[in-house]
Amino acid sequence: MSAQTDRNTKGILFNIQKYSVHDGPGIRTILFLKGCSLRCRWCSNPESQSAAPELAFNRDKCLGEEHCQRCHHVCRNQALGVAQDGKMVWNPDDCRQCHACAEACPNKALIVYGYETTVDQALRRVEEDEAFYSRSGGGVTLSGGEPLVQAEFAMALLREAKRRRIHTCIETCGMVPWNVLREAAQYLDHVLYDVKLADSEKHRMATGAGNEVILENLRRLRREFPDLPITVRTPVIPGINDTPEDIRAIAEIVREVGGMDYELLGYHRMGTPKYVYLGRSYELTEPNLDEGRLEELRALARKVLESGKEAPRGLCA
Ligand SMILES: C[S@@+](CC[C@H](N)C(=O)[O-])C[C@H]1O[C@@H](n2cnc3c(N)ncnc32)[C@H](O)[C@@H]1O
Ligand code: SF4
Ligand code: SF4
Ligand code: SF4
Fold it and tell me: Which PROSITE patterns does the record match to this protein (predicted)?
């Protein structure tokens, strides 16, 4: 693909986060691409899951009918009404996603998650922080959603980032066709790869899909790109994958595949308000995992990985 074509390739982002230190080496800018192949019940980015831009309503910011009503006047689908307290009520079932109301809203109570952008526009935002990257070994991380769902856009972003000598990383759930992951790997300097559950049926219940493709892709990625740094990550979700058996089983897969780092991520509920804004409900009610329990699981994972290391030569039979 020519550089010109890549620079003009369009895709849909829903956020750009600067100065991140948790999503790949050094200081990074994260580009969040819309669309996902899974539906994890705990997902902190519910606004990422649908591929198209979507309306969200934060009623706390609504000025109420007495002062405003602008959205009410522009909606042609009776998807907006007035509640007893004078604030608007949004009915997602009647909404046609035309987004006229979001344009009219003066207080950003109605907003749209997702906007179209070109590769060049996105990477210019990344380049604003070039000085930080070169000193810290950072760069750009593609996240989402599942960034490889917008395969053409993701590929053009990665190719063009490499032309601009920007370090590239991806956060992926691995639930993508192998040929897409293989192509992306050619332009990647680091991969953060989620393995959420070892048991496929439990994976299906928790995320909407089994894990066969994810595990097979991980094995092929390691085999066909032996020099590409891969960090496998597991978000430890209460009631979903927080038992020693769950973590041991995933750590054993990481050990068997070999040559990868492994990290456990603490659970958080920071995405909860966004479910409300989208007219959805957040299902998980389990209490948070305490830090001590998480540390125990981390120690268990380390033990499993270390048990796979070669014994010193002198001790071999
Ligand atoms: C939002 S995801 C985007 C990348 C990709 N879709 C994935 O799942 O790996 C980025 C990271 O956030 C983690 N994550 C999502 N929801 C979380 C939550 N409620 N608590 C902790 N980590 C979470 C995911 O496991 C993943 O490692
Ligand atoms: S997006 Fe369009 S249809 Fe939906 S509430 Fe707003 S104006 Fe009405
Ligand atoms: S336009 Fe915005 S602030 Fe005004 S009534 Fe509608 S939601 Fe509320
Ligand atoms: S794969 Fe990632 S973005 Fe998609 S639903 Fe799961 S946590 Fe959210």
Answer: 4FE4S_FER_1, 4FE4S_FER_2, RADICAL_ACTIVATING, RADICAL_SAM
Q: Measuring from atom 1 of ligand 3, which residue has the nearest CA?
A: 105
| pLDDT of 308 | 75
- Residue 256 dihedral angles phi and psi, to the nearest 5°: -65, -40
Domain boundary among 83, 112, 141: 112
CB 31 within 8 A of CB 44: no
Q: Measuring from atom 7 of ligand 4, which residue has the nearest CA?
A: 43
Q: Are 40 and 195 in contact (CB under 8 A)?
A: no
Whether 218 and 280 share a structural domain: yes
Query: Residue 270 Cα, ligand 4 centroid: separation in angstroms?
Result: 14
| Atom 2 (ligand 2) nearest CA | 98
Calculate how far, in angstroms, residue 42's C-alpha sits from the geometric centre of ligand 4.
8
Q: Find the CATH number of the domain harbouring 165.
A: 3.20.20.70
Measured by CA distance, the residue closest to atom 2 of ligand 4 is 145
Q: pLDDT tens for residues 285-313?
A: 888 888 999 999 999 999 999 997 755 54
CB distance 6 to 123 below 8 Å: no
**Ligand 1: which of 194, 214, 236, 264 to mutate, judged by most atoms within 8 Å of the beta carbon?**
194
Please check whether residues 244 and 289 belong to one and the same domain: yes
Closest ligand 3 atom to Cα of 62: 8
Residue nearest atom 21 of ligand 1, based on CA coordinates: 267
| pLDDT digit string, tens, across residues 118-144 | 999 999 999 998 888 888 999 999 999
Count of all residues that appear for the chain in the document: 317
The structural domain count of the chain equals: 2
CA distance 153 to 228: 22
Asked whether residue 97 falls in the same domain as residue 154, the answer is: no
Instruction: Check whether residue 80 and residue 43 sit in a common domain.
Output: no
CB of 68 within 6 A of ligand 3: the answer is: yes
